[in-house]
Design brief:
Helix content: 25-40%
Low-confidence stretches: none
Oligomer: single chain
Strand order of the largest sheet: 1-2-3-13-4-14-18-16-17
Number of strands: 20
Strand content: 25-35%
Distance between the termini: 35 Å
Number of domains: 2
Shape: globular
Structural class: alpha/beta
Amino acid sequence: MSELLVDLKAFLQSSPTPYHAVKAMAKRLDVAGYQYLDEADSWALSEGGRYYTVRNGSSIIAWCLPKAKSVIESGFRMVGAHTDSPCLKVKPQPEIHKHDYQQLGVEVYGGVLLNPWFDRDLSMAGRVSYLDVDRRRKQALVNFQKPVAVLPSLAIHLDRDANTSRTINAQTHLPVILAQGKHAGDFKSILSQQLIKEGVADVAEILDYEISLYDTQEPSIVGLADEFIASARLDNLLSCFMGLNALLNADSDEGVLLVCNDHEEVGSMSAAGAQGPMLSQVIERLVPAVEDRVRMLNRSMLISADNAHGVHPNFSDKHDANHGPLLNAGPVIKINANQRYASNSETSGLFKDLAQQVGVPVQSFVVRSDMGCGSTIGPITAAELGVKTLDIGVPQFAMHSIRELAGVQDVDSLIKVLEAFYKEKYV
């Protein structure tokens, strides 16, 4: 197994929530010599400097300023992705006791494919706000790591239509089993005990939390020839990983930037989402004068990286016959006439040229004309900044399932093209 895939598996396994993903990315940026900038502080930036900032613990922006010219002359080569994935989140008052079982009520986050969540070994992770022993408000990340919850299926003997017409009620069918009896205590007590186990010794009172359930099965390389990677949260931690690797690998003379936003799966409308002001505020601090900023953005481009639907051999009729991306056949340019994707002929042409230069094949995806089309942070960011934009991604199966599948060759391929983009002089 290549070192790249080893790193990818470790990143996916260490990132059960957006908070953990940003923490893992920040650690790699620290090692690479990037300087953390707190949004609440004044920023002193230098030519060729490497920096990053974090908002809400779940969104991150990293950038390098050009070495030999102003960023106004250079512009930014920007890559965007998102840190969140569809999942089940624990409710604020989740305790349910039925027939001697202790359960947790959950809320559906994003467009979850619900059936695969049944009969999995589930754990919990997220962020906790608490008071310490001196009654100071603090936050900490928590990750139970081991399986602590399960959502058993109903036996087919009791549901004879399970294979033909089963539907899932998110309110009544999804509470997970946490324990038998009432010995586990209330949920905040469980969190407090887990934080202490993880070395957070000053917890006096849990104030609130944002906790997600996740599958404990580790990422795997599968296929007779090791062609695929199977994991949770490939949409869209895979793009975060590829964008970060390209950023760290590219030794560019131009301005380069990586933005990974939270909340894409629920519309991006938040302070840390792509429809919020985080990226525009960072750019305003880098180029305060309006005219200079407009000139800089005119010399800039954004590549929005979010996985694409590979053509499933058992369901090929769900694709346009001429636009069915194959796994391990190269990154996919995503096109939609109604601007659900922000690609246009100029931005896709640049990407195709860069891909040819590094020997990477390119595919195209257009949704069937009689089906609805999803969207990405691409059109949102393009509208917020007024920057030309391209939507791309690597093809995958089982998008929004608890376990997804992508091609290992596509990971290396897209990193190569993104590196070339970061180095490109004219965009």
